[in-house]
Amino acid sequence: MSYVLWFEHIRLSDLPKVGGKNASLGEMYQGLTAKGVKIPNGFAVTADAYWQFVDSNGLRPKMQALLREVDADSDVHTLQSIGAAMRELFMQAEVPADVRLAITEAYAKLSQGYGRANVDVAVRSSATAEDLPTASFAGQQETYLNISGDAQLLQAVQECYASLFTDRAISYRISNGFEHMQVALSVGVQKMVRADLAASGIMFTLDTESGFKDVVLINSAYGLGEPIVQGSVTPDEFLVFKPTLQQGYRPIVKKRLGEKALQMIYETGGETGVKTVTVSVEEDLRGKFSINDDEVLELARYACAIEDYYSALHSSWTPMDVEWAKDGQDGQLYILQARPETVHAQESALAYTEYRLQQRGKILLTGTSVGSKISTGRTRVIRSLADIGQFRAGDILVTERTDPDWEPVMRKSRGIITDQGGRTCHAAIVSRELGVPAIVGTADGSRRLPDGGMITLSCAEGEQGIVYEGELPFEVETIQLDALPQPPVKIMMNVADPSQAFSLARIPNQGVGLARMEFIINHDIAIHPMALVDYEHLRDRRLKRVIAERTQGYDDKREFFVDKLSRGIATIAAAFWPNDVIVRMSDFKTNEYANLLGGQHYEPKEENPMLGFRGASRYSHPRYKPAFALECAAIKRVRDDMGLTNVKVMIPFCRTIAEGEQVLATMAEFGLKRGDNGLEVYVMCEIPSNVILAEQFADIFDGFSIGSNDLTQLTLGLDRDSEIVAPIFDERNAAVKTLIAQVIHAARKKGRKIGICGQAPSDYPEFAEFLVQEGIDSISLNPDSVIKTMLHLEKLK
Q1: DSSP 490-532
Q2: Is 632 a catalytic residue?
Q3: Can you tell me the distance from the alpha carbon of 642 to that of 469, in angstroms, rounded to the nearest whole number?
Q4: What is the DSSP code string of 386-426?
Q5: Are 120 and 192 in contact (CB under 8 A)?
Q6: HSE (side-chain half, CA atoms, 13 Å) at 28
């Protein structure tokens, strides 16, 4: 028997000896350290040592007798009683002398390798059945941090053994069909990374909610990593796009500042030596990201290397769940462990399931959504483990946060709502594995939601999870994507909300025909760009104060606009890469711009904003040109810095050829020259002049996108918001269709691309037929119309 194996001698095939966690660490240590991935050294106390501990203390018959009393139908109290008795058996036993010697000798050698006695280590449980393709075993057994000296190390090993029989671990094995006496416990002993002086976190090599494969999701917070897993902090969040990262670009497509109110650090003193303690984070640090952009990109490169390595080992795509830490003493980033992600890796890419609310109600609460499902049920507010006996199967669990001890009740819930946590906290990880929707990070949900109230929990509306009052009707549709026909024309999508882009990209499509910049400006920025340009000279003190609060962390307020806008656009571009994503430059009307913070100082009052200072006329005008420079800077950053050259630009409401030429000149002035780096610039066709002069417009633009809404209004001379004349509005009117046919033919004659992004083909399948018959290149649809339109157009082939 071998009681100790060093990481450098461990491979994945050693899982029966050292468990999933240690097998993975050894495999990475051997295969990836030479490629620049930094992994702290260590060793595994093997399953042989565990069985020697069990048998030398005569524990087998006692264990078997106790475990016969618990099964899948056992209540919580029985589970708690058996678990406590099992752990007591282990803690009353003694570590055999031969096992003790093997551990202490290996520890001395590890300490010597790091140049000091009693080096501080992390002691991690590693069950011999964990981290399998269908079961993560995340958090089922214990980890002990900052252990130093033989006595502490041996005590931690024994406590790891006992943790094989925590209540949640027993419940987990029963639920997943594992025989208790067939699972052993290995222990990993690894050099501690001094994250208490810096930061740590978790990363996944996919988007955890949609399963989108081409990003790395990174969560980060100050100090040791336990609070992120526990959900007691809301971490910083980053998304990095893999394809262009690997081409040498810097594609951080998303950055979200977390609250990070707490951190776990070392506490010295006391009889048992150095321990850990959770303390508050200083206010000024909460408003800063816990790692910088260079570190985000380095972590993402580590993640890609790990995923590529495991995918090659398994001969198939293997997304990974990775723990990392930054050492505050040497400033280096380290990988602590990695395991296969077990939820999305098993999903079929040939099916798309969508949950849709059929009506909305009063909003009680919002937070971060986990998954994309909807659930209804009665709330059960549980404030501590002592009260979990009140929970009934089918309730929606509402609590401050969860940890692995909560899993027996989580398995019986229809949904989970927590006050704390982010997308990689314990509640989020377990809810995904269980397939139940969760909303985490609500701040005060356990205090605001009444116990026993009927609610609807919706995670089907993007990144924001919403709790509605009452039981609302919803529908579920599953579409077999491999059975869909190939349409006779390119089918694209209209997309506005970056938070839904990864999910929408799963619907069959050939790119984005209209990405609306206005949604990002209104939702993520909410400040008039000229107020940011003029920030230093604002006379309105209240306005200046509010802007300062909303742009915390940005010394240059213009950079706030460029950063938020570029990352929103980049998220959409990444989701649909490498297909075209046509981004329309801002097309607010003056009354809409005025609603942005500070907008009333910059917008004229117009009798008819739809026909006034909008679209192309703004971009070169002194009243808006400095703001247009920010829009151009955002596009340039997405294309040049992030490498997302699938982004094309579209100019809205361009009345004349001269206006179009002026806009192109202004864009070139701001670094966006048509043709450079493959940049294509389209023009909206939404004014009769665009049709009449289509061939001249084709000389200066790369293509057209028909905006059927405005074109219909301007052709028929009506305001569709007027209840009196609105019934006349109809894109199928012969005059409108004549103009559309005319511009399609003109574009084709000039060899220019032409598509449509208006509402008509989404509403009227016969209108889509008309467009195909006239020879349009692409139809860009609202996401909920894509499938039905594809099916309808099949008959035209």
Answers
A1: EEEEEE--GGGHHHHTTSS-S-EEEEEHHHHIIIII-B-HHHH
A2: no
A3: 42
A4: GGGGG--TTPEEEES---GGGHHHHTT-SEEEESS--TTSH
A5: yes
A6: 31
**Catalytic position from the list 426, 528, 632, 654:** 426
The owner of tokens 């969560």 is: 219
Spatial contact of 420 and 234, defined as CB atoms under 8 Å apart: yes
Would you state the pLDDT for residue 453?
95
- Residue 764: pLDDT above 90? no
pLDDT one-digit tens code per residue, 384-397: 888 888 888 899 99
The per-residue pLDDT for range 503-534, each reduced to its tens digit, is 899 888 999 999 999 999 999 999 999 999 99
> Do the strands 121-127 and 199-204 form a parallel or antiparallel pair, or are they unpaired?
unpaired
Angstrom distance (rounded) from CA 198 to CA 665: 47
The pLDDT, as a whole number, for residue 272 is 44
Decide: 611 and 602 in contact? Cβ < 8 Å: no
Instruction: State both tokens at 598.
Output: 């500070």
Q: How many other C-beta atoms lie within 10 A of the C-beta of residue 243?
A: 16
Cα–Cα distance between 201 and 219 in angstroms, integer? 5
Q: Which residues is 229 bridged to in the sheet?
A: none
Question: What would the DSSP string read from start to end of 157-168?
Answer: HHHHHHGGG-HH
Flag whether pLDDT at 364 surpasses 90.
Answer: yes
Whole-number Cα distances in Å, 68 to 74, 188, 372, 489: 11, 30, 39, 64
The helix-helix angle for 150-162 and 97-113 (nearest 10°) equals 120
Domains, the chain, ordered by start: 4-191 (3.30.1490.20), 196-346 (3.30.470.20), 351-479 (3.50.30.10), 484-796 (3.20.20.60)
Q: Which two tokens stand for residue 147?
A: 């252990």
CA separation for the pair 666, 417 (Å, rounded): 49
- For residues 520 and 517, give the distance between their C-alpha atoms in angstroms, rounded to a whole number: 6
792 catalytic residue (yes or no): no
Give the active site residue among 425, 654, 685, 757: 757
CA distance 191 to 749: 69
Distance CA 213, CA 370 (A): 17
- The tokens of 706 are what? 């028909």
CB 213 within 8 A of CB 193: no
Type of residue at 542: R
Whether residue 622 is preceded by a cis peptide bond, meaning omega within 30 degrees of 0, is: no
The answer for residues whose C-beta is within 8 angstroms of residue 333's C-beta and 6 or more apart is 38, 295, 298, 299, 302, 324, 325, 326, 327
Count CB-CB contacts under 10 A for residue 463. 18
Q: What is d(CA 516, CA 585) in angstroms, rounded to the nearest whole number?
A: 8
pLDDT at 273 over 90: no
Mean pLDDT of 436-463: 93
**Poorest-pLDDT segment among 43-52, 423-432, 548-557, 700-709:** 423-432
| pLDDT beyond 60 at 270 | no
